[in-house]
Design goal:
The protein is an alpha+beta fold and 675 residues long. The protein has 23 helices and 21 strands.
Amino acid sequence: MSDACCGPGDDHDEAGPPEARQRFWQVPEIRLAGIAGILLAGGLAAGRLDWRPGEVGLLLAAAAAGGWTFVPGTLRALAQRRVGVGTLMTIALVGALVLGQFAEAAMLAFLFSISEALEDYSLARTRRGLRALLALVPDEVRVVRGGRESTIAPADLRIGDRMLIRAGERIASDGIVLSGRSAVDTSAITGESVPVETGPGAGVYAGAINGTGVLTVEATATVDGNSLAKVVRVVEDAQRRKGDRQRLADRIARPLVPAVMVLAVLVAGLGALVGDPVTWLERALVVLVAAAPCAMAISVPVTVIAAVGAASRFGVLVKGGAALETLGAVRVVALDKTGTLTRNRPVVTEVVPADGVTGDSVLEVAAALEARSEHPLAAAILAAAGPPAAAESVVTVPGAGLEGIVGGTPARLGNPTWISAGPLGDAVSRLEESGTTVAVVERGGTVLGVVGIRDELRPEAAEVVTELRAAGVEVAMLTGDNARTAAALAAQAGIGQVHAGLKPTDKAGLVRSMQGRRGAVAMVGDGVNDAPALATADVGIAMGAMGSDVAIETADVALMGTDLRHLPQALRHARRARGIMLQNIGLSAAIVLTLVPLAAFGVLSLATVVFVHELAEVFVIGNGVRAGRLRPLRGETAPGPVAIQRVPIRMESEEDGCACCAPGEESAAGQLRRS
């Protein structure tokens, strides 16, 4: 929070444990403000009864009670040569007391103490909503050590421990499933409502709820170092990062404080030359309060904290105010194909061998070359071919394919633009027109055959593209795949702008060419392969980042799950937050510009200015907190408070619309962990 705002020098620590949360009435500043209000009311009543000693005593006590919430912090800040709004209010409070305006002094202290307390409470509340994620870790963990089952505290969990997760229990830390099958609910982390089918070899994450089966999980991280703890740390850091509008508010507020002090001195000094010095001194104090930029300084931070924390609750990490503002200004979205628009579960759909060659021979050579490849299509070929033969001197040709030696003979595998399909050209055209990626296999300079591999479009892709276009967002597909395959998938998704056959640097160049045409450009990719384009875009969005340190740390925005519908939801959320920021800044500036001249010419009293100013700050805080409200996806209800309980999960069938793995398939979480 800016020092230009209330109570400079006061550090607000909201990182305490969830059990230490204070209710509204338990906040010390709220209690002091309440006491000040009671004493103020008593003083005003005593004045009505013409009891002067009681009136003065009660009003002074009210000023002391209210002033205790900000005067000590102001004095500590002044000792460090820092000035802020608290400085202005302290000067005005002391000045009113010196001039004998006890009622105005008490009113100022009371109202300002309320605004200070509400500001601190609202910021603490929005930050604590994020810390509640850490409560997803269970209070105890069952582990198997030395063949014996025991229960330990989460803090005692070590990497390599075997956790025993029963049905309905939460997973304490990240790990790999050793045995058992179940459906795991990750909705509290990724925002996705459909449980993920999980079995041996699959990765699971802290905070997820086990379904109906019993799992034995080998811990791959401690509780302090698991993915859930990383998410909380990243978002807390993001909440402290400033965006352009927060920097604008700071740039205005910081120099405004000393400028206001100079203005007040000029009002008092010049006014004393032409009129009653006491009258102009009173007006100078009113100007001092009227020009205080507290509402402006707090207007953006409270919005950013609320919006970033809320986004994390539906599975979207936004890396600070700058990323939030840019996301809200996005008018062009560039989507990677593999793993973003598609499921990233490619399978071999067809093998077309050349004359005199068997399909098994084609797959055998292809698998030998792909055995050590990290390309997404490699897993599909290896799954179709079985155990691969040994290959030597395998080299990756960027954007083309692989070459090496199989069985003592040179062999290649790659796209049809690199290896001519020869007599199989018609088969290649037929497959590509259907949206299938084609790999040509060659050995000893002779084409053995072609392999058709297809990565199905995500079922929600068309819905997401339609929603983005309805919101005025231009959508483009960027892919390294061939033009016909890309065009076929783009047509299914409803995307008209397709750029195919691209290398990573080509994607970055295209993103650069899109910038400046309509507005901010967002690039959505996997966070690793699309790194140049993600870095070039105004805002880089990593898809399916749960468990990926690279994606979480490098992307401006990370979608923790694989439900593409969270993309338009995140854009709507950011646009709304950006609008609230603009509203708050505009209102704060308008109030200062209106109150200062009225105060300088004696139209408004000190009490009136204090009331209007602090009422505006309360409104700005309340308006900023609105950015923390979530709008659910279609067909879902808004997420409520985190509850720690055992929840049985119904196993989803294919008829129920489950997008889980088929028996024997590795889950998406497992693929992500391997990648």
